[in-house]
Amino acid sequence: MLKLPSITAARGPAALHDRTTFAPGMARSQISCLRSTRAANVHPQTAFTSGAMAPRMRTSTTLAPTRRSIQPLTCRASLTEAAPGKTVLGFVGIGIMGLAMTRNLLKAGYEVVVWNRNPDKCKPLADEGAKVASTPREVAAAATYTFAMLSDPEAALEVATRPDGVAAGLAPGKGYVDVSTVDAATSRAVAAAVRGAGAAFLEAPVSGSKGPAEQGKLIFLTAGDQALFTAVSAPLDVMGKAKFFLGQEGAGANMKLVVNMVMGSMMTSFAEGLALADKVGLRQQDVIEVVGLGAIAAPMFALKGPSMAARSYGPAFPLKHQQKDMRLALALGDEVAQPLPMAAAANSLYIAARRQGLGDADFSAVMEAVAAQQQQQQ
Ligand SMILES: NC(=O)C1=CN([C@@H]2O[C@H](COP(=O)(O)OP(=O)(O)OC[C@H]3O[C@@H](n4cnc5c(N)ncnc54)[C@H](OP(=O)(O)O)[C@@H]3O)[C@@H](O)[C@H]2O)C=CC1
Ligand SMILES: O=CC(=O)O
After folding, report:
1. Angstrom distance (rounded) from CA 106 to CA 361
2. How much is the ipTM here?
3. Which residues are near ligand 1 (CB < 6 Å)?
4. Which atom from ligand 1 is nearest to the alpha carbon of 99?
5. Could you give the domains of the chain?
6. Among 317, 319, 321, which residue has the most ligand 1 atoms within 8 Å of its CB, making it the best to mutate?
7. Ranges of residues in the chain whose predicted pLDDT is under 50
8. What is the value of pTM for the model shown?
9. How far is the C-alpha of 274 from the C-alpha of 336, rounded, in Å?
């Protein structure tokens, strides 16, 4: 009989939720040591032999370090914990999400230096007290910790590595937190550029859209240098309601793609349901109500249903970004030979919607691709 691997053995790095960060009494110097072990590609747990010093992380079989991977610790610049009035933060990428997130940092009392490719988008933040830089390098040079919220892998890599990019302004003691949704390979390339400058790197894609960004209720899916996770905990808490530390960079990116792949498929399925209901003479409003009362109730259906029924798609999460996430999730599935037929079907609807010119509309506009297919078949 074919023996399947156990789920535990197949799992990636253990998750560390914000409620279980470090063992009590762990000194900052130990936190910075964690960063350098990460840079040396050694799991932080290998750095601590005493139970009192070990960070509280759940372990899994895949994390068990081999003796060969244990290397001496070289503590470089330590990271100070960010606090309002004390730490200058940077933010590059002032789009839908970046604007709302930066606003919350300003409201919490942080000094924030911002940059956006189209500088006009920085104006509202300048009115609210942000300083505007003319290059990403200037932001990273002025700030201790710089956040980035950029549209896709190409933008994330470009802003980090171009000659006047973020990496050029980084130095030991600083950190870069990329909250864009990208693939693991891009995240690792950005991490290499950041660490090449002697700084720390954290990937921290977010779950939650424009509304949660405005309300400071995002969910951060982080991975990378754990010392930076700790150092930016306070600003993450200003912008979000939960944060997870998932291990080495790539794990946060993969988690985000899994979640958004499910979300993207749910949305196309919901759009098809609304279209079918309409076709058979049911009121879409009734469908939304019935769905909302049962086991498949979801905040997303409750939030987007009424505007979808009205065929109105003001952008909270641009459809072009959802299609990018489907594309990246499918590529991830390809990489590990995991068939994803539902996601592939959903992706073709998002592509069709982009062809209809709906890339900048909300992703719920995939409804129009469903409607167009219906018409083609009549
Ligand atoms: N909106 C949402 O609900 C959510 C979005 N995300 C993710 O967050 C990221 C940003 O999303 P969102 O804010 O909605 O998107 P927007 O399209 O509103 O913003 C994209 C940002 O990226 C910048 N950008 C794009 N290309 C480049 C480039 N080559 N060089 C420099 N800057 C560039 C844009 O600059 P410019 O203004 O000059 O074009 C803009 O600041 C995406 O990865 C998305 O998948 C994650 C969770 C929720
Ligand atoms: O990435 C989008 C979201 O809503 O999360």
Report:
1. 28
2. 0.99
3. 93-98, 116-118, 121, 149-152, 155, 158-159, 180-181, 206, 209-210, 316-318, 321
4. 13
5. 11-60 (no CATH), 88-242 (3.40.50.720), 255-376 (1.10.1040.10)
6. 321
7. 1-15, 18-75
8. 0.85
9. 34
